[in-house]
Design a protein that fits this description.
The chain is an alpha/beta fold. It has twelve helices and eight strands. Strand 7, helix 9 and strand 8 form a beta-alpha-beta unit.
């Protein structure tokens, strides 16, 4: 089953792509585990989780008792001793929520010290990501922040595709180039691109010409229905058949990698 990491500059639509792919794989009869690893967690909303169900999802980084139980230290404690390889195998089933055939697990934000801090919550999250990518058998869709902080050399080889979502603008294209360099540093040689908010062939050409050497998986059209889905708290998967068709083509492209 594919393990897909999706990243990009904030606001480009990576969470929209993650939600579309999650439902496409689920509709194809595959087990799907979607991981929200963005500090600005909104994958539950993009998947159309009911408000009550979404409110019940506690990010793993905020589970103080779990972190203490598994690492032997309290969140935010620095400089002490704690387990660097805590047990995590039961976490996906215990702390994920399911909606319409997609299981969702929210990682949460490490408060203080940055995502690379040496702290118990960081140890738990990193070991959890390693477990998800190396040990799980279902489709894994990892909605990441604009970087590769949740990945390391030990897990890079397990990622079947790192997708950078871009829009037709210089800032998101520069972010894609930066992510590509960082990914190469940990052994991910192939970084793929999906263009979003595309208004026509000129935008497609602009993205392709601006990112020579990148493999472009496909494009998602600019969609007023995506904005409407966000307003209504439902998934764009249910409102915009054109975006679903475009995302289907992207999923087909992933299957050929």
């Amino acid at each position: 089953m594919p393990k897909i990491a999706i990243t990009g500059k904030g606001g480009v639509g990576k969470t929209t792509l993650a939600s579309l792919l999650a439902y496409i794989y689920a509709r194809r009869g595959q087990r799907v585990l979607a991981i929200d690893a963005d500090p600005n967690a909104n994958l539950a909303s993009a998947l159309g989780f009911p408000t009550v169900a979404a409110a019940r999802i506690t990010p793993i980084a905020e589970m103080e008792e779990l972190i203490y139980e598994r690492t032997g230290a309290r969140p935010g404690e620095y400089g002490g001793f704690f387990k660097l390889n805590p047990r995590v195998g039961d976490i996906p089933e215990r702390f994920s929520a399911e909606w319409r055939g997609v299981r969702l697990l929210v990682m949460g934000t490490i408060k203080g010290g940055g995502s690379g801090c040496v702290c118990p919550e960081s140890a738990l999250l990193k070991n959890l990501v390693t477990h998800l990518l190396l040990q799980r058998s279902e489709v894994i869709i990892l909605d990441m922040e604009a970087g590769i902080e949740h990945l390391g050399r030990g897990t890079a080889g397990a990622v079947d595709a790192m997708i950078v979502v871009v829009e037709p603008g210089q800032r998101s294209l520069q972010t894609a180039q930066t992510i590509s360099r960082l990914a190469a540093d940990i052994g991910i040689q192939e970084v793929y691109v999906v263009g979003n908010k595309v208004r026509g062939q000129a935008d497609r050409d602009f993205i392709a010409d601006s990112l020579p050497g990148f493999k472009i998986l496909g494009f998602l059209s600019e969609s007023p229905l995506a904005i409407e889905a966000d307003r209504r708290g439902v998934s764009v998967f249910d409102l915009d058949p054109q975006m679903v068709t475009e995302a289907e083509a992207i999923a087909d492209g992933l299957s050929s990698l």
